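Quick start: read one record
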Amino acid sequence: MRTSLAIAMLAASALLPPCTAPLGAQAASAVPPPPLLVLALNDLSFGTVLPGVPATVRVNDAQHAGLFEIRGPAGASVRIELVMPAFLSNDAGSVVPLSFGPGDGFVSFGRGDRPRGLFFDPHLPVIGALGPDGHLFVRIGGTALPGRPQAGGNYFGTIFMTVFDLGS
C-alpha cells in the first residue's frame, strides 16, 4: 500500500497593526508590506507500508519529508499554524491512523541536507523570522500506523498550513 500526504491548501495573510497616525501622515507613509509566498516543494510520503508495521518519516528525510518554503521580506516575523490530519484514507473508505509529535516539525533558513534550525510539534503554532534572504523552510515528518489487517491501495491526506505575517 502506498501512502502520501499531499498539501492541498496553503494560505498566507498579513496582519497589520492599526495605524494611529493622522490621516495625512498615513497617506504619505503607509506602504503595505509585500505579501508572503508559500510553496509546497515536497509532499510528505510514507511510501510502501506493510500491514501492522508503523512507518516513520523523519524531518531530515529529503525524499519523503514534507518541505515548504516561505518567502517574504528579510527578517519578517511569521506565525505558522498547521492542521494535521488524524488519518490517511483511500477511495474505499479504509483509513491509516497518523501520529505527529514534538520532533515532527522543523524550521530553518536553509534547504540543505544538514540545516540548523528548530524542532517543533506540528500541532502547535511556531513563531519565527524569515532569514536574511527572505526565506524560511518548514519540514514535516510523522508516523503512519497501519492496522493488521490493512486494505492495500493508495492512501491520501491533507495538511493545511496558514502563515501570518507579524511584521518586521
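The first strand starts at residue 2 and ends at 14.
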